[in-house]
């Protein structure tokens, strides 16, 4: 058995006991990266820097220095998170050679906790996509079945953890971009409450919906990561000044007496049989453990996808306007004047999906359409949010499938944008409401593909999500 | 063509003199080397986020309170989206639907007629950087990018170029009183845009044009007169006014079309999701109100209570700088009437000789206080006082030492003066006769002679007394 087969929590114990060194772990990770490079999970790696840092941590540990709680553990960042001196490409030709001049708060927190950043994960360009096929550097493959997509946009982040190239990764989730790939790859991924984790230094897609979260192989690992990531940041005015609990504290409390909400809108006809059966078993199991199943109505859920594409595209159009070829990133080689410089640099630098969203976003904000689209979408967002808040007066968590089907084939939905957008139908409402949600593996399909359930909680109640998820995971762990 | 009315509204942009920029910690400072006051936020690095500078909000509120605005408890920052190389994010953070301050106004006076000019709003926004055109091509300096600005928007309440300038002068004076902006036109820390239309009595408002590139009050005055005439001539010639932005060419003294409404941009404003709506509580506004400095009307009342005339009080409070200077001199020499007379006569005479529209008093107030004290005590006479004042204006100095160095000490020795005057009286029998016959003007001749004989040091009052005694 390789050290890579351990969870983050387990390997931390081994490090602290002196049974393994950080240097060994980094070396094993890079061997695995080499063996599995066809997955195309990573856009860049930093072997020399990682080894140097691992050695420093190993020697500090030997000397008995006080170390951070993730000291020596190799992790991967999504390629839209700034980490000073490294490339941050957002999987776009526009930022192909962009080197971060500063570090994002979330990356700094991991660094300060002693994590060893070994590379950056491939993704859909500027986090726009659900299959990781929109990367300028090629699609990522699903490690369970390389003919299938890993999901997106944090496809590389989910893939690298599932393929055991590292012990945890960071992703970003605007409409499901952590949870959908986590579900497709069979790992655990959280989209924290909006405002729980700082967005400073994370390249914005849709600022009012984006959240950073961890992808891990176990629920416990994920709770540990959130302990490091969560908290107010003076550099991000939208980060919440709300106390951060110990997310590992309730892990073993079980689910007896908890109320689990089941909204019929999440169990529509679109669900494939395998997913439906898995979820039914999940709900039965929780009931058998003493949880109470509560029927919930979320009547406006079907509007969330439309609201999402209006709001996220509007914000994206504005957020991506800074990529103009003037200051950094791609600049067209030949241009006649400054307008031509903008036009050519952006035409050459952005991929199709990004251009589609920019056009959509500018359309819904333009004079004469603003009220009909943007303003109305903001109003509907309030309605959806209120429906979730009311739901949580009747239950502690909601459980739904993360996606309607397991991972689909590479190329299967590439030309059907609506079908692609529908992959996020269960995850998007969570971002619209701003509530936290965790995707946890809950079985496999007849073809052996991972199926994930989504546990949705009250604002800032990530602790209960981990409690509910860990109970299931402990009971269904495959023997090691 | 006097049957036409001119309708003028003004937009004034004023940079706030905060220590740091509006949304990052970079220094807000004019004149540094290009791009030395920049960071990931104000250069729009991917992933950087704005953090609102509380001081900028408070300064905007202070100005709002000074001109009687209502301060909105809820206000929102929005993104104004457009591409331009000096705008690093390709959007400007500004306010549209929910500005920080609304309403209010200021009173102006033109040819003795008072008029109240209403304000529409004051909102907070950020400045853009600056393009530098050089041989190496066009370069961008982002030092100014993100500097806090307030935009003060008037209602179209002005009906002449003179009223517009009076409004601008009053607004600038108020900004300086409140102390929230340096208002340096040459550094661009205050800028004006004019909206202007003409119509006939009883007719609806005409189509307006917007004038840009107005860098001085003089330019505003000339541009409005030019543009009103141009519009009237167009209408008289049977042509319609095109709604457009026009650029003032100060050298040629005319306006040129920059862009018409058809090419105007759609700014796609929407609330900035990186900034939470501003929640300004009434108690918070009260604490800011308590910091509002004394403005001109309060100071006029105060000065009148010290024995100054209304006219003198108004002259001294015309600009905060004058009033502050006056009060600083009084701190060391508390003779309001005496100090006021010197400032309104001697200081203003020198200020009027300065061509620049932004005039500064270069004199150290405590040096002036020391000089005036010597003058009041009779240590120096008026000629000596003026001589020292010239030096204080040019380079400053210690008046007590200057009196010594320049030998300006007034001659107050009765015996010595009497000796000199006895000779002058003896030498000028004709003048003596005139004076004896009651021609008081002849006294000036004797004072002048005494001054000549003493190199200007004679105490003129004593000279007069002695002469009167000698010719009895």
Can you give a write-up of this model?
The complex is a heterodimer of chains A (480) and B (472). Chain A is an alpha/beta fold. Helix content of chain A is 38%, strand content 13%. Chain A has one domain: Alpha-Beta Complex (Amidase signature (AS) enzymes). Chain A is globular. Chain B has 472 residues and is an alpha+beta fold. Chain B has three domains: 4-284, no CATH class; 296-406, no CATH class; 414-470, Arc Repressor Mutant, subunit A, CATH 1.10.10.410. Chain B has helices at 54-66, 161-178, 217-236, 282-289, 296-305, 310-317, 320-332, 336-352, 365-376, 382-394, 399-406, 414-427, 429-436, 442-453, 460-470; strands at residues 4-15, 70-71, 74-75, 78-81, 91-94, 101-102, 105-110, 113-126, 130-134, 137-141, 148-154, 190-200, 209-214, 244-249, 254-260, 270-271, 278-279. In chain B, helix 2 (161-178) packs antiparallel against helix 3 and helix 12 packs across helix 15. Chain B is elongated and about 90 Å long. The interface between A and B is large, with 44 and 29 residues.
Q: How is the topology of this model organized?
A:
The complex is a heterodimer of chains A (480) and B (472).
Chain A: H1 8-16, H2 22-35, E1 42-45, H3 47-62, E2 74-78, H4 105-112, E3 116-121, H5 155-162, E4 168-173, H6 179-185, E5 188-191, E6 211-216, H7 219-229, E7 259-263, H8 273-288, E8 292-296, H9 304-319, H10 338-349, H11 352-365, H12 371-394, E9 397-401, H13 417-422, H14 428-433, E10 437-444, E11 450-457, H15 462-476
Parallel strand pairs in A: 2-3, 2-4, 7-8, 7-9
Antiparallel strand pairs in A: 1-3, 4-6, 5-6, 5-10, 9-11, 10-11
Helix pairs in contact in A: 2-3, 5-6, 7-15, 9-11, 9-12
Chain B: E1 4-15, H1 54-66, E2 70-71, E3 74-75, E4 78-81, E5 91-94, E6 101-102, E7 105-110, E8 113-126, E9 130-134, E10 137-141, E11 148-154, H2 161-178, E12 190-200, E13 209-214, H3 217-236, E14 244-249, E15 254-260, E16 270-271, E17 278-279, H4 282-289, H5 296-305, H6 310-317, H7 320-332, H8 336-352, H9 365-376, H10 382-394, H11 399-406, H12 414-427, H13 429-436, H14 442-453, H15 460-470
Parallel strand pairs in B: 13-14
Antiparallel strand pairs in B: 1-11, 1-12, 2-6, 3-17, 4-5, 4-16, 6-8, 7-8, 8-11, 9-10, 12-13, 14-15
């Amino acid at each position: 058995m390789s050290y890579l087969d351990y969870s983050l929590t387990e390997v931390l114990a081994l490090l602290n006991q002196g049974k393994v060194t950080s240097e060994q772990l980094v070396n094993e990770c890079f061997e695995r990266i080499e063996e599995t490079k066809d997955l195309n999970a990573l856009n860049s790696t930093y072997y020399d820097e990682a080894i140097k840092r691992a050695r420093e941590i190993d020697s500090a540990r030997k000397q008995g220095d006080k170390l951070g709680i993730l000291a020596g553990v190799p992790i991967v960042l999504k390629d839209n998170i700034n980490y000073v001196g490294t490339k941050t490409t957002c999987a776009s030709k526009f930022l192909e050679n962009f080197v971060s001049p500063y570090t994002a708060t979330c990356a700094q927190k991991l660094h300060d906790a002693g994590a060893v950043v070994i590379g950056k994960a491939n993704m859909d360009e500027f986090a726009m996509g659900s299959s990781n096929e929109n990367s300028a550097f090629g699609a990522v493959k699903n490690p369970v079945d390389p003919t299938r997509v890993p999901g997106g946009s944090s496809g590389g982040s989910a893939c690298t953890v599932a393929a055991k190239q590292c012990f945890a990764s960071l992703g970003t989730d605007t409409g499901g971009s952590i949870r959908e790939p986590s579900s497709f790859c069979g790992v655990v991924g959280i989209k924290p409450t909006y405002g729980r984790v700082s967005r400073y230094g994370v390249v914005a897609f849709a600022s009012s919906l984006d959240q950073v979260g961890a992808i891990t192989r176990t629920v416990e690992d994920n709770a540990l990561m959130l302990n490091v990531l969560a908290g107010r940041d003076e550099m991000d005015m939208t980060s919440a000044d709300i106390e951060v609990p110990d997310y590992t504290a309730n892990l073993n409390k079980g689910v007896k007496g908890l109320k689990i909400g089941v909204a019929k809108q999440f169990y529509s006809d679109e669900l494939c049989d395998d997913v439906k059966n898995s979820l039914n078993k999940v709900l039965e199991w929780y009931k058998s453990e003493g949880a109470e199943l509560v029927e919930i109505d979320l009547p406006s859920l079907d509007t969330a996808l439309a609201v999402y594409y209006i709001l996220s595209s509007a914000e994206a159009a504005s957020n991506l306007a800074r990529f103009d070829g003037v200051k950094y990133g791609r600049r067209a080689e030949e241009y006649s004047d400054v307008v031509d410089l903008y036009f050519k640099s952006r035409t050459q630098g952005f991929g199709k999906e990004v251009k589609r969203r920019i056009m959509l976003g500018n359309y819904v904000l333009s004079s004469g359409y603003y009220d009909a689209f943007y303003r109305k979408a903001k109003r509907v967002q309030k309605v959806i949010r209120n429906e979730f808040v009311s739901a949580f007066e009747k239950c502690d968590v909601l459980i739904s499938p993360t996606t309607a089907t397991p991972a689909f084939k590479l190329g299967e939905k590439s030309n059907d944008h609506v079908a692609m957008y529908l992959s996020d139908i269960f995850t998007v409402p969570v971002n619209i409401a701003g509530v936290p949600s965790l995707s946890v593996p809950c079985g496999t399909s007849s073809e052996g593909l991972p199926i994930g359930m989504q546990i949705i909680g009250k604002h800032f109640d990530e602790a209960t999500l981990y409690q509910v998820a860990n109970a299931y995971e402990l009971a269904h762990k495959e023997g090691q | 063509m006097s049957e036409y009315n001119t309708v003028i509204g003004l937009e004034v942009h004023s940079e706030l003199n905060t220590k740091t920029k509006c949304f990052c910690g970079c220094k807000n400072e004019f004149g540094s080397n290009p791009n030395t006051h920049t960071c990931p936020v104000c250069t729009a690095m991917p992933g950087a986020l704005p953090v609102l500078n509380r001081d900028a909000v408070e300064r905007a509120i202070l100005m709002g309170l000074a001109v009687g605005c209502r301060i909105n408890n809820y206000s929102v920052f929005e993104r104004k989206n457009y591409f331009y190389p000096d705008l690093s994010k390709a959007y400007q953070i500004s306010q549209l639907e929910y500005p920080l301050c609304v309403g209010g106004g200021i009173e102006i006076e033109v040819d003795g007629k008072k008029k109240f000019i209403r304000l529409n709003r004051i909102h907070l926004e950020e400045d853009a950087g600056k393009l530098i055109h050089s041989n190496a091509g066009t370069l961008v300096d982002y030092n100014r990018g993100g500097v806090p600005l307030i935009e003060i928007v008037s209602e179209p309440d002005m009906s002449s170029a003179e009223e517009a300038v009076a409004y601008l002068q009053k607004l600038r004076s108020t900004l300086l009183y409140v102390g929230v902006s340096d208002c340096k036109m040459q550094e661009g820390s205050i800028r004006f845009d004019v909206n202007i239309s003409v119509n006939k009595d009883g007719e609806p408002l005409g189509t307006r044009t917007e004038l840009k590139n107005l860098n001085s009050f003089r330019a505003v005055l000339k541009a409005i007169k030019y543009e009103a005439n141009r519009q009237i001539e167009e209408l008289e010639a049977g042509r319609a006014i095109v709604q457009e932005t026009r650029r003032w060419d100060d050298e040629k003294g005319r306006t040129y079309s920059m862009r018409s409404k058809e090419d105007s941009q759609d700014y796609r404003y929407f609330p900035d999701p990186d900034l939470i709506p501003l929640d300004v509580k009434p108690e918070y506004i009260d604490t800011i109100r308590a910091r509002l400095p004394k403005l001109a009307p309060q100071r006029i009342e105060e000065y009148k209570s010290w024995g100054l005339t209304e006219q003198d009080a108004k002259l001294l409070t015309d600009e905060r700088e004058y009033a502050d200077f006056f009060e600083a001199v009084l701190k060391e020499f508390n003779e309001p009437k005496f100090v006021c007379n010197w400032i309104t006569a001697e200081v203003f005479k020198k200020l009027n000789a300065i061509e620049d529209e932004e005039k500064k008093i270069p004199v150290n107030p405590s040096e002036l206080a020391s000089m005036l004290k010597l003058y009041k005590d009779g240590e120096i006479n008026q000629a000596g006082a003026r001589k020292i004042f010239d030096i204080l204006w040019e380079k400053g100095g210690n008046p007590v030492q200057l009196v010594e160095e320049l030998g300006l000490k007034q001659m107050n020795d009765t015996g010595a003066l009497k000796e000199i005057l006895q000779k002058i009286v003896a030498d000028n029998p004709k003048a003596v006769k005139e004076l004896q016959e009651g021609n008081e003007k002849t006294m000036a001749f004797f004072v002048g002679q005494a001054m000549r004989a003493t190199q200007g040091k004679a105490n003129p009052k004593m000279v007069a007394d002695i002469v009167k005694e000698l010719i009895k």
